[in-house]
Amino acid sequence: MTAFAELTRRSYLSLTVSMMTCLILLINVSFKLIDLQGIIFTASSVLCPLVAVIYLMVLRECNIVQQRHILNQCLLALYLFSVGIYLLVNLPAADYMHDNPAYQIVFEDIPKKFFASTLAFALSFYLPHLYCCMRKTEMLTSPKRRLLLALVGGYTFFSLNFLLLFSHPLIQTFQRIYIDSLMVSGGILLLVGVIYLTSLAILKPVKTALDKESLPAYLSKPLYHYLVSFSVTILLICLACEYRLVSLTDGLILGASGLLFPLTIIASNLVGELFGYKANLRLAIVLILTELTFDLLLMGAVALPAPEFFNLNPFYSSIMPRRIPAGTLALFVTFVGNAMLLENLKYTGLGLNRCSRILIANIFAASLLCLVNYSLLYGGIYSYDQIFNLAMNSWAYKIIVTLISLPIVLGLCNRYHLHKNVTLT
């Protein structure tokens, strides 16, 4: 715990979420090809070096214990995302979805994408770092060797991911695409290396006033970071299946994203009760920034021109501009509202216990979410009757999940506080 709390800068959380977002975005755009001025390359040739850059920052900013935590969280996020997507896209779809363009936004070949991304990440970053930790080499302490570890990892990550995705079945002009992509990836990594070495030679370490300030207590708790990572992963699963509708029983139709989204509210409840109001607000900000970053990067990747023989997901271009403001507003009113109510209901003078506060806050948050999300997100895509039924079904489902989760949340809170008291004594 002491080693985890020794943060040199307030960067652990942002680095973790950034790497997770890039890895999950990589799964989303695994088969995206970009055609610029006759050069055909994959989106992964840009994202893989970006992951390597974040990995280099992790090696520089965090100690070894924190580095292992970040890599563990990223690997768990890949597992959770792929399993969640695979389950949601295989649920029975609503009948009136099949002729709708939004139905096309469903990921195919999830097992292949998951296998490629996870195996490449493990062999390029996770296992080499574990080996360096076990051997206690100077690779993790020397700035130049850290750079070498990150650059080799980035190159290996891209190559393995590309070969696992495109080698079988062999796509058209495979060799040309690989060489072009390798040039793009290698160019980015080379530029990163030059900038990093130049900064080592010219710039002197600067200790800012922010670094000297004490961190909030909750940022030194691994549990808080794992709850945030869990929430971010669930959010990205929901964003991936935003427009998919599933039919559970006759007449009961729900958005696929709504099936898992209550888990993020449960995580918000735990964060608010265990770590306080400010920790819950930080979670809300992280989720909003993650949604904005993910959607903007995804829209940018899809907007880039693709070769005619491999043009995927043309419907993203019309749907993403609608989803970004709607999703941002929905997340803001849901999580900020939930955090504020959980805190302010303590001081109403009504003598509300923890169970009552969580229930009231969640009902209010679920109502705002359904009102904002479904009216803005589905307007013009489905009829008003369908939107109303979706909103009501989703609201009822979220309330049921809240009621079911209450004993679990209360039990975890009591167990945590009991363990904390025992530790202090």
UniProtKB/TrEMBL annotation:
Keywords: Membrane, Transmembrane, Transmembrane helix. The chain crosses the membrane at residues 12-31, 37-58, 70-94, 114-134, 146-171, 177-203, 223-246, 252-271, 283-304, 324-342, 363-383, 395-413. InterPro entries: YhhQ. This is VUT family protein. It comes from Legionella drozanskii LLAP-1. Coiled coil: none annotated.
